Amino acid sequence: MRELASVTTAATLALILVVAAFMGGLGLGAWAGGRLVRRVSRPLRVYAYAELSAAMLFLVGIPLLGGSLHFHGWLIDLGATGPVALGIQLTAVGIYLVICTTLLGLALPLLVAGLERRSETAALIQRDAAYSFLYGMNTFGAVAGAIACGYVFIEILGLDRSIVLGVTASLGSAVCAFVLAGSSTSDVVVRSASSPGGDHRTSWRVFIITFATGAVALGAEVVWTRMFSLVVLNTVYAYTQVLAAVLIGIALAGFVTARVTRRILLGEYSSRRLLSVVFAALLGAAIWMACVPSLVHALGATKGFAGAAASGRSVEAMVILVAVLMPSSGLLALVLPLLIGVGGTAETSRTLARLFAINTLGAVLGTLATGLLFLPVIGLGGSQLVLSLSIVGIAALTPSGQRGWPRYAILAGAVAAVVGLHQLVSLPGDLYALRFEEHESILDYREGITSDVIVTEDRANRRRIWINSSWVAGTSGAHSLLGHLPALAATHLDRAMGIALGTGQTFGAVVEHGARHLDCVEINADVVELARRWFAPFNHNLFDRPGVEVHVADGRAFLRSTRDRYDLIVLEPLQAWSAGTTALYTREFYEEASHVLRDGGVLAQWIPFYGQDTAATKAMVRTAIDVFPNASLWFFDRDAILLLDKGTFVLPWPKLRDSQLPALVDVRKRWHLEGAQDLLSLFMMGPRGLAEWTTGAAVLEDDRPFLEYVAARQLGEDPFTAILASTMPALEDPADYLPPGSLANGDAVRARAAALTRALCTPDRFARCATSIEAELATPTDSQRLHYEYRQLILAWATGETDLAAREAAYRRGIAHDDDFGEAMVNLAILLAERGSFDDAEVLAERARAIPRTRDTADRVLAKLHARH
Question: Which of 134, 497, 749, 848 sits at 20 to 30 Å (Cα–Cα) from 822?
Fold first, then answer.
């Protein structure tokens, strides 16, 4: 799936295609294997050839999947549209995957048939029970493979080498099978005797039950993955753990039924008794599945669990996940091997092949129906209830020892239990609430195919947009700077592209600078809808502006298929730990972007100074400048903006110098960036400094998406200070990239120094930090940002003081060094009024009232003072 996503970047389509092709191929192979075993004398040798062929095909797939990207480009050149070319590319890859997985699907029937023909009649019981044991071992292999790839191999070895490792395992299996086939003493077909458990015929009910349990089991995995994504951040480790928990349940079921099958063959269990076990297992699975939402809610409310599970560092968190999900998946998995016993143990391999094929077909359809239909239409809560009740319905089809009213009473009790347990937790609302801050409420939400999208608002009217369990953008952030700075840097601004919409503030800023056409590319239609509805005042009514065209598509797939050329490309991806985000930070991505940028064009990339460690942050930047060496890094608050120039690097001094530029009015006022010097104070380093800072850093590639693994493991840590401190030796003076004399007073460097001082300051160093900025303020300055950073530092210092005298001293110190520090005046006035010094408080409030920035606040304070005094 990761390999396919890297050459299409349509992650959702890749996941659906791989699930359908993989499971469908396994089912088709099992069906073909069941027919084949009657026609071959040495099934182990045939198994070895099938395994060898599959290994070779997967090995060929490494260049084949990469070549499909060139096939996609060739289709575009022939005139196909992007969606049509992508559809043909995925269809071709899907056919290849079905062929490979069909060969793998032959495995289990051929192995069982090989065992049937190797031993004498005396070993009949152990032999015919072996299919359940093999089923369990095969699934434990799947657990090991999922965990090994999810935790180690893809990050360390990369995608291609991980496939080679899998191919090596298949080759080893083929060699073992050849050895076993060569050591066989007879080619005679040995048929097992019929067991007391049943005859060779399989009833229609068994087929329906087998199909339905496969559909529900895989549908439940889709629901559980979405459910956990609302309380655990969407990292590769979180997904791996959910998958492993489900597979462990299936594997244990295989081992349990291996023992049961022996007892069937010994006559200890009748067919009816076996069906009673199936009946009980299904009811148990339904009731436990109905408990899962309450258990997930409890885990989400447990301090530290979400971070531990998302980071992949906690064995305890994985054990808990297994304990929550395994019972239901395991009980459902018991059904298939038990039904094989019901279907008859004569020629076990044929019975297994038929039922495994039907079960796998159900799994494919269950996955597609749940992901593409149930979740978008009836939501998470409705899907959970439908699947739980479906299991009870499957149980109703199962013949058992209970008859008449006791049977109906048991089924009615199970339905009541499922419905009652469903009422304990409101899905998805109760899970959402676990992530919100106090007094934050939901304005709107959508449950879609790929994720849930939520918009919230707090008491200060600040809005945030969430995707599953993490908020991705809000109205209080500096998102518009990511649009303003690159728009200023672009030589021309006729056509622009924006990837990853968020609230739309970034793209709205680009349009404000006069872009005649903007292609807004967002993979999630629900994000577009909610941004349009709730963030229009903040994104300058982006969607109603002429020239703005919205494309609901994967950003990288759109980039690959477009024939247009752009002056500006702006990205605002999800955080680095989000599964799949690395695809927008790799060398291959930047090379593709370079092909659609015009000369003099600019690509703007968001570089958070948090969420990943210093080495990973340097890798993000190093990868970009390997393709775009003429680059610059700009910093504000906790975010950096990397501007990548396709051409000669030049600071946009003429545009920055124009302080009356209408597009900058809002950003100047909001972030105290009044003049060109303040805007240039955001500049950290140009091409020389970036080359120095990133020397020796690793390069991100599609084949090695290590960024999201590293970032996920560091969840809960705050590497901001270390990342920012690492840039200090490489900082450059923007004057070095401007004509001589452009920055005469050095305000840009002084304001930047104040900003970095505040950013790196810790509570135990407030006094020293204040002294450092006060030294800069001692020289006359026009920089509003320098004053802003000093004020923010003093306010943080005073707020952190529990001693009122120390708090008062901090406010007085700030006022002494900044005559326009109205915020400190207001706060000090309130403090003095509480002590009864009303006259002094009124004097300070009157001073603050003379400052436009704090006039309204001062008026409210004065009104209260007049009322009390």
Answer: 749
pLDDT of 675: 79
The predicted structure's pLDDT at residue 121: 40
Q: Is the pLDDT of residue 69 over 80?
A: no
| Mean pLDDT score, 468-477 | 87
As a whole number of angstroms, the distance between CA 76 and CA 82 comes to: 7
C-beta neighbour count of 269 within 10 angstroms: 21
Distance CA 360, CA 628 (A): 48
Angle between helices 784-800 and 822-834 in degrees, nearest 10: 20
Give the range with max mean pLDDT: 136-145, 197-206, 667-676.
136-145
SS3 helix, strand, coil % of the chain, rounded to 5?
A: 65, 10, 25
Whole-prediction pTM: 0.87
Please say if the pLDDT value at position 751 is more than 80: yes
- Whether 356 contacts 30, CB under 8 Å: yes
Radius of gyration of the chain (CA): 32
Query: Collapsing DSSP states into helix, strand and coil, what is residue 427?
Result: coil
CA-based nearest residue to 428, from 401, 451, 404, 405: 451
Q: Please report the beta strands in 401-504, taking only residues with DSSP state E, as ranges in sequence order.
A: 441-447, 452-457, 463-467, 470-474, 495-499
Contact 5/14 with Cβ under 8 angstroms? yes
Q: What single DSSP character describes residue 581? A: G
Give the SS3 label for residue 85.
helix
Cα(132)–Cα(256) distance, rounded to whole angstroms?
Answer: 8
Gap between the Cα atoms of 443 and 486, Å rounded: 32
Residue among 27, 278, 281, 266 nearest 129 (CA):
266
Provide mean pLDDT across the span 311-333: 87
**Three-state SS at 416:** helix
Q: What is the pLDDT of residues 619-645, one digit of tens each?
A: 999 999 999 999 999 999 889 999 999
The closest of 686, 583, 572 to 628, measured between CA atoms, is: 686
- Sign of the dihedral defined by the CA atoms of residues 689, 695, 701, 706, in that order: negative
* Helical H segments across 344-374, by residue range: 348-369
What does the pLDDT look like over 158-196, one tens digit per residue? 989 999 999 999 999 999 888 887 765 444 444 443 443
Tell whether omega for the bond before 729 is within 30 degrees of 0, i.e. cis.
no
Residues forming beta bridges with residue 453, ordered by sequence position: 446, 467
Tell me, what's the pLDDT at 187? 42
The Cα-based distances of 462 to 439, 440, 476, 786, 833 in angstroms read 11, 9, 6, 26, 30
Q: Which helix (H) or strand (E) holds 27?
A: helix 11-36
Task: Work out the angle at residue 211's Cα, subtended by the Cα atoms of residues 332 and 166, and round it to the nearest 5 degrees.
Answer: 75
**Per residue in 800-819, pLDDT tens?**
998 999 999 999 999 999 99
- Which residues, other chains included, contact 379 with Cβ-Cβ below 8 Å and sequence gap of 6+? 427, 428, 447
Instruction: Give the model's confidence band at 260: pLDDT under 50 very low, under 70 low, under 90 confident, else very high.
Output: low
- Separation of alpha carbons 745 and 723, rounded Å: 29
